[in-house]
Specification:
seven-stranded mixed sheet, single chain, Isoleucyl-tRNA Synthetase, Domain 1, RNA-binding, 1064 residues, alpha+beta, Isoleucyl-tRNA Synthetase, domain 2
Length: 1064
RNA sequence: GGGUCAGUAGCUCAACUAGGUAGAGCGCCACUCUGAUAAGGUGGAGGCUUGCGGUUCAAAUCCGCACUGACCCA
């Protein structure tokens, strides 16, 4: 296998391996009879490529699906695609250069729908391959598509259930209309942008009294539909007589707070307050709208229109009097309905005034603004005409300014079952919890009725057939629930097996019952309705019933937080309305993928990081690991190149750790064990068969710890913490400690029980680590796994069982001891470094001054491990409470204390103090020495005057350590003697020979002949004492003259050596 | 304009649920090691915990108010 972890190479090899062994199919089949886990994929919309957010989402889904499979579940993994709807229509319109519905009609509905389907299919293909490119394993051959007849039927069926439940209604509502798309759009499809609009103050002349009401609006085009003026009945209003600079006067009614601003806008130079009124005084006053003559169709005063009414929403803003048109605004409409005022909307679905618009008929509303402003001025009704910058709603797809108009639409009257919605909501468990309890509850409580009809083409046709001369009562309509039912009812021949439920096919179908002909309403469903039925649509229900009966509702869904308003909601609404139940039991709500600086990504602004860039740069596994290393619970993620690189680095460490024992195992023909959890027969040398050493037992115990932690984190939907735990184990415990410790064991020449134990330990640990990382990094774990198992286990790591904790391998006391030893080792290394003695040179002794009994216990039990790691001949322990008797203390004087105490003598005392040495932190002993030094006997010191400083003996360096449970100081005695010098020089030789072996590119087990020539008699003699060490460590069969070998001259601690190596 | 969530070292995050000296990894700098070698070891620098107020003996933590960002709503 390659020396280096190369993600691209790994991915390429693994892709073809997966293909060769049908890895995915085998993994699915492996769990076919297991307990089911019904996961439902929230369908991405097929209008573009996979961006970072989709990639994060699918990576999370893939990881949790893999995890559940490893936990033994038969997981439903059918991917879905949301393929209908206005966004695709507008993209196709753009491609075809269309500007309005007229173009579509000319092009032909059927052809247009065909184009939309092709567009959606193309994008679906792109998404499928995007998702597969980073290793997502779902049932790619069998995705659910919202355009398939069986899926569309799932929507029809659900809607007919809703109708049966009495929750379908036809009615007028004020809706947001895109005049270009000529359809209603949902409130959450409205995007707000800052625009400049007219800002006009208009006078409405009162009928029975002097003066006029002043209203303000940014939509002059709604004035023709004015029906009433709203005031706040509790507000304060004033009647003022305002004077222009020309001396003309006007009597105006305005909210008190607004008087100054309004008069200044109107260019008045002076005014007097004539009277104060409360809002309720104004109610019932009648006025004549200024454009009454231009719009004769506007209902007359007789209907109760053109009067002042109270409005809840009115504030003392602008004028405090609100122009209200129930034919347009939502609040206006609702208040108008309460007041039983007629609805007057002179604007058509295309935003053009109808004949009812009188003088303005035929004009597009926004284009009519200028005429209306001019007409208002001509009628002397304009108080001020300005412009204002404010945020205004636009169609999310075509960016056209929306208009509020009242049209007939089909609704699911979700407000009738609000209590049930709230109750059902509580039966599902959300991660994080606040998402449900704050965000989602707020939304559900305020949710209006669901307008499900759209006056468009590319969607699921609304399956409603209305009778001739229909009264408007929803009870009298036919709602078709299935293709079979359609075939049975239709006047025409319909083959349920082949019928395409799209427009225009269904438009031509009529139904005749009891002599009455029913025709289909021309609308299609709001595309949100499509995905709302996914939990049964994905099971092909009602066409097939078995899966639905067994699986529904979903065990788990996971999407980003925008779906609280989207899919989480639409499913709750549809599930409740159709089936009385919520379609999912558990929700994982993740965040948005933002740019590294925290800004949102935006394709249109070119601010994105594309997943394939990341894969090209660092690989799919590192990208996945990064995406899975951040919390999946509600918080947004800022993408990080650095962290992705770190993930690659960590995988490289795993790669290196994995590679390290390979050559040794191969040399010794190690018979690797593959446990049953990996599909092995448990043959070979397992850890139960091996003579484990302390460090092996420690590593295995740590592994149990990590497995327990990781599993708990996964169960809490905190897979990022599980990843942390596993990576820390790999880097800290496995790589930095275990591998370092076992290196010498592995290098031993002959097979030994010790080596075998290390092999068995590594085999088991690596297998389980690879399994623990498989959901994160499916490629590299697969490759490592296949090397670890050969042909013994399952064909793929993804079939393996999730590793479980083996209680018998837990050794908490040992873990605690080793934690202490490692801390002591770190301090010892520090001390060695301070003393300038490298690890190759042994030291005579290490003294550990223990501050806790736990340190003593750890050293008693495993002191040899520390001795080995610190390369010391002996470890001495100083018990807690005792002091190491070779330590001395000097003192540092605090002059702010000495000064006042000793006056003129303070300087002399200080010098004596600084020269003094005592064996304990004993203030009296110190005072005695100072007194002796100064030849006085009246020296009294207090602890405030001095600070004791520890002094180690010569050749000794110390460093402190501390863990959660232990503390102490490690002293390293680096005094040389011939014994340590001899070994030190010998190891210098060994290390250089190793380097030369490497330079010569010798095989690891190649034997050599070595000639050592030392240009210093004493050193030469010291080296010679360790010939056996040298020959063994360097695999030198013999020492002696070398004819024509690799020869190199070295400087070792000032001594010249010539080494010559030849292979034998 | 309103709601929800977030803001801690250059980066990613801990510590926040029960207030008690702010930690880790990575990156950076210096030194070191060398049959895992694009690895390993030791040390170091690096923080007004976004800001301003409040509660408290004590606030990253609790409470207000701002600011910044994300999403949702209008």
């Amino acid at each position: 296998m390659p020396d280096q972890y190369d993600p691209a190479g790994v991915e390429e090899r693994v892709f073809s391996y997966w293909e060769a062994v049908d890895a995915y199919e085998q993994t699915v089949d492996h769990r076919a009879d297991a307990e089911t886990f019904f996961f439902v994929d929230g369908p991405p919309y097929t209008s573009g490529a996979a961006h970072m957010g989709t990639t994060w989402n699918k990576t999370l889904k893939d990881a949790y699906i893999r995890y559940h499979r490893m936990q033994g579940y038969d997981v439903t993994d059918r991917p879905g695609y949301d393929m209908h709807g206005l966004p695709i229509e507008t993209k196709v319109e753009e491609q075809l250069g269309f500007e309005s519905k007229k173009d579509i009609q000319e092009f032909g509905e059927e052809a247009f729908i065909e184009e939309c389907k092709r567009f959606a299919d193309d994008n679906l293909d792109g998404l499928q391959s995007d998702f597969q490119s980073f290793g997502v394993w779902m049932d790619w051959d069998n995705p659910y598509k919202t355009v398939d007849p069986s899926y569309m039927e799932a929507a029809w069926w659900a809607f007919s259930e809703v109708h049966d439940n009495g929750l379908v209604e036809r009615g007028q509502r004020s809706i947001s209309q895109c005049p270009r798309c000529e359809t209603a759009i949902a409130n959450n499809e409205v995007e707000y942008e800052d625009v400049t609009d007219p800002s006009i103050y208009v006078r409405f002349d009162l009928d029975d009294r002097e003066g006029s009401l002043v209203v303000w609006t940014t939509t002059p085009w709604t004035i023709p539909a004015n029906q009433f003026v709203a005031v706040d009945e509790d507000g304060d209003y004033q009647q003022v007589r305002a004077t222009t600079p020309d001396g003309e006067t006007d009597v105006l009614y305005v909210a008190s707070e607004c008087v100054e601003d309004v008069l200044s806008a109107g260019g008045y130079s002076d005014h007097e307050v004539v009277a104060d009124h409360s809002g309720s005084d104004l109610i019932g006053w009648s006025y004549t709208p200024p454009l009454a003559d231009a719009v004769p169709a506007n209902p007359t005063d007789a209907d109760g229109t053109h009067e002042v009414y109270h409005g809840d929403w009115v504030e003392a803003d602008r004028t405090g009097l609100v122009h209200s048109a129930p034919g347009h605004g939502e609040e206006d409409f609702e208040r108008g309905a309460e007041l039983d005022l007629p609805v007057f909307c002179p604007v058509g679905e295309d935003g053009v005034y109808t004949d009812a618009g009188g003088k303005y008929a035929g004009a597009f509303v926004r284009d009519a603004n200028d005429d209306i402003i001019a007409d208002l001025e001509a009628r002397d009704a304009m108080l001020a005409s300005q412009t204002v910058e404010h945020s205004y709603g636009h169609c999310w797809r075509c960016d056209t300014g929306i208009i509020q108009i009242v049209t007939d639409q089909w609704f699911i009257t979700i407000t009738d079952v609000k209590d049930e919605l709230l109750a059902n909501m509580d039966t599902s468990e959300w991660h994080p919890e606040w998402a449900r309890d704050n965000r989602f509850r707020d939304f559900v409580e305020n949710a209006p009725d669901w307008n499900v009809s759209r006056q468009r083409y590319w969607g699921i046709p609304v399956p409603i057939w209305t009778p001739e001369d229909w009264s408007g009562d929803a009870e009298d309509v036919l709602v078709v629930g299935t293709r079979e039912e359609l075939a049975a009812l239709a006047d025409q021949d319909v083959d349920p097996a082949s019928v395409d439920l799209h427009k225009p096919t269904v438009d031509d179908i009529t139904i005749t019952e009891d002599g009455t002909e029913y025709t289909r309403v021309p609308d299609v469903f709001d595309v949100w309705l499509d995905s709302s039925v996914a939990s049964w649509g994905t099971l092909n229900y009602p066409e097939q019933e078995n899966d639905f009966d067994e699986l529904w509702p979903a065990d788990l869904i996971m999407e980003a937080h925008d779906q609280t308003r989207g899919w989480f909601w639409s499913q709750l609404g549809m599930g409740t309305a159709a089936l009385g139940d919520v379609p999912y039991e558990e929700v994982l709500m993740h965040g948005y993928a933002n740019m590294p600086d925290g800004r949102g990504m935006s394709k249109s602004k070119g601010i994105t990081i594309e997943p394939n860039e990341v894969i090209d740069e660092y690989g799919a596994d590192p990208m996945r690991m990064f995406l899975l290393s951040v919390t999946p619970q509600g918080d947004d993620m800022s993408f990080s190149w650095d962290e992705t690189e770190n993930m690659q680095r960590d995988l490289n460490i795993l790669w290196n750790v994995f590679r390290f024992p390979r050559p040794y195992m191969a040399l010794d023909d190690f018979d690797a064990n593959v446990p049953a959890a990996f599909g092995g027969d448990d043959a070979g040398v397992g850890i139960a068969d091996a003579d484990l050493e302390t460090v092996d037992e420690w590593l295995l115990s740590r592994l149990q710890h990590v497995k327990a932690d990781a599993t708990a984190h996964w169960e809490d939907f905190e897979q990022h913490r599980a990843l942390d735990a596993v990576l820390e184990f790999v880097v800290e415990d496995l790589s930095r400690y275990y591998v370092q410790v076992v290196r010498e064991r592995m290098w031993e020449d002959d097979a030994s029980a010790s080596k075998t134990a290390a092999y068995a330990t590594m085999q088991r640990v690596l297998l389980e680590v690879v399994a623990l990382l498989a959901p994160y990094a499916p490629f590299v774990t697969e490759e490592l796994y296949s090397h670890l198992t050969g042909d013994r286990g399952y064909d793929t790591v993804h079939m393996a069982d999730w590793p479980t904790v083996e209680e018998s391998l837990r050794a908490p006391a040992l873990e605690a001891d080793v934690a202490v030893l490692r801390a002591a080792e770190e301090a010892g290394s520090h001390a060695r470094q301070q003393a300038g003695r490298k690890l190759r040179w042994p030291v005579t002794r290490v003294v550990v001054d223990a501050a806790e009994d736990s340190v003593v216990d750890a050293l008693d039990a495993h002191g040899d491990l520390l001795a080995d790691r610190l390369n010391t001949r002996a470890v001495e322990v100083v018990e807690p409470g005792a002091a190491w008797d070779e330590l001395a203390y000097s003192a540092r004087a605090d002059m702010s204390e000495l000064g006042p105490a000793f006056g003129d003598d303070a300087g002399a005392v200080m010098n004596a103090l600084n020269d003094a040495h005592v064996t304990d932190r004993d203030i009296d002993a110190l005072a005695e020495q100072v007194a002796a030094d100064l030849g006085r006997d009246d020296i009294e010191l207090t602890t405030e005057m001095v600070e004791f400083v520890e002094e180690t003996p010569e050749h000794v360096a110390g460093a402190a350590f501390e863990t959660e449970t232990a503390a102490g100081t490690v002293y390293v005695d680096t005094e040389l003697n011939e014994d340590v010098e001899s070994e030190g020089y010998a190891r210098e030789v060994v290390r250089r020979v190793q380097e030369m072996r490497k330079e010569m590119d010798l095989a690891m087990d190649a034997e050599i002949r070595l000639d050592v020539l030392v240009f210093d008699e004493r050193v030469g003699e010291l080296v010679a004492r360790h010939e056996p060490l040298i020959t063994e460590e360097t695999r030198a069969r013999e020492l002696g003259e070398v004819e024509d070998g690799h020869r190199e001259e070295w400087d070792v601690e000032g001594t010249t050596m010539i080494l010559e190596v030849e292979a034998v």
